[in-house]
Write a structure and sequence with these properties.
The structure is a homodimer of 314-residue chains. Chain A is an alpha/beta fold and 314 residues long. Chain A is 49% helix and 13% strand. The first copy, chain A, folds into 3 domains: 237 residues, P-loop containing nucleotide triphosphate hydrolases (Rossmann fold, 3-Layer(aba) Sandwich), CATH 3.40.50; 32 residues; 34 residues, no CATH class. In chain A, α1 runs antiparallel to α4 and α3 crosses α9.
């Protein structure tokens, strides 16, 4: 655990490579990083709705990690923002207090062009920060849209931040939120409705765990503004790190990520090939005309085109 | 403009077909409907954030359309809800006042299984309601996630509902929201900040229109709770309908939808074929092992597998 990250020699160099990734100029980031060298960072995904105090929590948590001698990189992903190029999102301004500390790196990424582009660039940026030698990489995402779920697949451990109060049911029912969390953080836990909320949450998690034959994920209570509970959250994250490394779960998860990337690469290339074929097929043009004329359904036209198309894969 | 929809003989029959679509039991809804007969419904997409008063607005608007002799089907899509099978979403309870009117049909759809499943089922449900002979099909979606954008591709006209006040910038900057609207509705327009909000909105729309060389989309102000401005909104929607039919824009948009469906059908089948090939490829297994061992990047493995794979398309 060095105090200055190694691998990529300076913060400036890291930032420059992430910018290249963001502009889509790097086709094989793992290759660029000498076979995707992982320096063994613990990649922590932290997600939560806007207003959950997630950013404040990340700020306080990062201080705790620094105090414990860990170097930290924070990547804040906001698909609803069009800011890019390392632009500082609103709440990132607070983090400027870290700006004199070379052991902390902060970067925001918004939507530049497509949201799939953002997901890909974020995944690659995590690889860069891992290779750069930071002990911990925190990926902070807003909400749980498709992009966020995509990005969080590269995290070793995912923490979901919730807040007691209005919209509880909505927060919890959000597609995917219960499945994605390795642990849950109830922030603003000084609110009066906290104990009821935690009880309901644990009940829901127990049901989910039974269904998937998994362990019950831990629930941590924090008040980011006062720092209450943040030390316990940090201890829980460390436990995850140690246990997952010892059990081989960390490695299995990383291999799963690599398999997913391999699959995605193949799919993208086959799709590109398909689109090229479709764009220069007079037969498809004729079938399309027949669909427009109401002579056949899109489904029937698809079947007919594919039947006569020679697609061989072997 | 008949007062009872034709084509599918009863509301019960329509509901049953939509349920089949929802369960994924209909592979070719257009075929089922005798080549996707469009009875010429005006399909109106209405989208807006939770809290924009969108559902109340749809309710009041539907009354106005009924008073004008039009039959109306309302399809409320909520990807964050797991309810399904025609379940009544919270705010749909209000609509029960219509329940004695055979000229109005209301259906809610939530996520059943995958969100792509919801997008597909919603598109098919619109086709069913169109074929059933309703004069107007309103597709109401929450927010502008990927599913919503997918669903709204089947609308002839899309109205985006906004509310003056906090979060203006966030609402407007949301990826895709400015691009998707044919018209914009400023609801709760009795708020004091309305005039400033409308001015800012029009400015932003004017910039967008200049960039895309398109007409400036109309902005309607409404107060759904009192009904203010709803008659004007209905008049604007009728104008869209008449103008788009006369100019051929309606037909062009429908053809575009059919082309998109044809493309999607082909892509899905090729993907299925690809996955089958990948799942039974020992060569891919070996390449995956080499990636896991750090001997090659996922990108290089993908290239190598595809290079030796015989994919012929012609």
């Amino acid at each position: 655990m060095s105090d200055t990250p190694v691998g990529l020699s300076s913060e400036r160099e890291i930032a420059r490579l992430i910018s290249k990734v963001e502009r889509g100029e790097v086709t094989d980031v793992a290759g660029e990083l000498a076979l995707g060298t992982s320096a063994g960072a613990h990649v922590i995904g932290i997600t939560g709705s806007p207003g959950s105090g997630k950013s404040t929590l990340v700020d306080v948590l990062a201080r705790q990690m620094r105090a414990d001698g860990r170097t930290v990189a924070i990547l804040a992903i906001d698909p609803s923002s069009h800011l890019t190029g390392g632009a500082v999102l609103g709440d990132r301004v607070r983090m400027s207090s870290h700006s004199q500390d070379p052991g902390i790196f902060i970067r925001s990424m918004g939507t530049r062009g497509s949201t799939t582009g953002l997901a890909r660039a974020s995944r690659d940026a995590v690889k860069v920060l891992d290779a750069a030698g930071y002990d911990i990489v925190i990926v902070e995402t807003v909400g749980v849209g498709q992009v966020e779920l995509d990005v969080l697949t590269v995290a070793d451990t995912v923490a979901v931040v919730l807040v007691p109060g209005l919209g509880d049911t909505m927060q919890m029912n959000k597609a995917g939120i219960m499945e994605i969390g390795d642990l849950f953080v109830v922030n603003m836990a000084d609110r009066p409705e906290t104990s009821r909320f935690v009880r309901d949450l644990k009940q829901a998690l127990a049901v989910g765990a039974r269904h998937s034959h998994a362990d019950m994920p831990p629930v941590c209570c924090t008040v980011a503004l006062t720092g209450d509970g943040v030390a316990e959250l940090w201890a829980t994250l460390r436990e995850f790190d140690e246990r997952d490394q010892a059990s081989g779960r960390r490695q299995a998860r990383r291999q799963e990520q690599q398999s997913r990337e391999l699959t995605r690469r193949i799919e993208n290339q086959v799709m590109a090939m398909l689109h090229q074929t479709m764009n220069s097929s007079p037969r498809l043009d004729r079938l399309r005309q027949r669909v427009w004329a109401g002579e056949m359904t899109p489904r029937a036209a698809a079947d007919e085109w594919l039947a006569d198309l020679k697609v061989h894969m072997d």
